[in-house]
Task: inverse folding
């Protein structure tokens, strides 16, 4: 990782301390060469790797540190069978053959943890009783954390297969009996078989998606 | 970046090709040492760096490659003043002093691009006329992309200050006149002043947020 100044950090010659920049290999691993996979190589995924993914992802920023993401790692054949009937037809094979499928979810009771997670203010009071704000905050921040989770899994050498093609109500009935936690998306975790990847889809150009004002 | 096999990739002695793992320095830069900042060092941010952030973030996965994120980089004093009245009081100083504030938004007309972005099926027809699905898909995937954007900015040496404390309706009136694009969150971009960081907030442990079944 070179410690050259970031592009655009020019300050007219003065020495400004700036962060390092990720290596080209790192950018490839996380973004430029990483792909969504549907076919997997053999190999199990042990608990310590799942814990390492979460321990990275949890460090990403959320609003008032609210941290609403909850994850169920579905690994046993019995639990996979509980998931199967909720899957869209096109997602069954890739999910049932993946060593682990993460149910990335969010806790609509997240604000009960705020006195510990954000002790600087009475942040619990911002949410209690405001169902629209609870839902929006849980969804936005739980989804941000879900993306940190995908990037963290890639950083630790796994390939991901995120999916929203499933019956959320059925997953919630099967895995979240308390009705407080809601499924957001699924993410297969494994080592992908790169020989079975289709060509990469195009992306919108900067000028199509962004403006500078 | 060591090319050792990923933990958990054990396959009983056979050689399985697996991805590399991000270096410790990379994990620190993106997750373990990165912090949300509110105070900034001097330094402008040039267009090429904004384009580089987007060009990484756009590669992250979205459902059916739907890519709904749109970004307005607010940099000129005039545009900053248009943003100011929409900010919560606690977010004014840090936003007005940041060299760039990104309005991370999503396009509720994203499905019009699907014939190009996802040519394998008539994906446009899944969405057209289904407002609830459009909103949910735009929000979920636009937020995933927003997290890729934060990680990409960190990978390129910037610090981020993401915020949801602002009047979304006011921002949309000021920056998205067509009413098709909706603001999601704001993100200050700059080199942060590490001397002014408060202690880091705690996170939920693996056992509090995750289960393996």
Result:
């Amino acid at each position: 990782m070179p410690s050259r100044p970031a592009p655009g950090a020019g300050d007219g010659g003065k020495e400004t301390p700036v962060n390092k920049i990720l290596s080209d290999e790192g950018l490839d691993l996380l973004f430029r060469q990483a792909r969504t996979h549907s076919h997997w190589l053999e190999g199990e995924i042990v608990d310590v790797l799942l814990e390492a993914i979460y321990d990275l992802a949890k460090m990403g920023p959320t609003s008032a540190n609210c941290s609403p993401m909850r994850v169920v790692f579905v690994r046993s054949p019995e639990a996979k069978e509980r998931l199967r009937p909720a899957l869209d037809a096109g997602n069954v094979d890739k999910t049932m053959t993946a060593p682990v499928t993460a149910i990335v979810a969010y806790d609509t009771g997240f604000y009960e943890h705020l006195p510990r997670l954000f002790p600087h203010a009475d942040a619990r009071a911002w949410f209690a009783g405001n169902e629209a704000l609870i839902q929006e905050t849980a969804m936005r921040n739980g989804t941000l954390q879900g993306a940190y989770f995908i990037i963290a899994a890639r950083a630790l050498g796994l390939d991901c297969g995120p999916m929203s093609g499933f019956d959320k109500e059925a997953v919630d009935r099967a895995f979240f009996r308390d009705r407080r936690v809601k499924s957001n998306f699924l993410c297969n975790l494994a080592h992908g078989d790169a020989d079975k990847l289709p060509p990469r889809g195009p992306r919108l150009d900067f000028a199509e998606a962004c403006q500078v004002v």
Q: What stands out?
A: Chain A touches chain B through 100 residues (CB under 8 Å). DSSP finds nine helices and five strands in chain A. Residues 1-16 of chain A have pLDDT under 50 and may be disordered. Strands of chain A lie at 69-74, 100-107, 159-163, 181-190, 210-212.
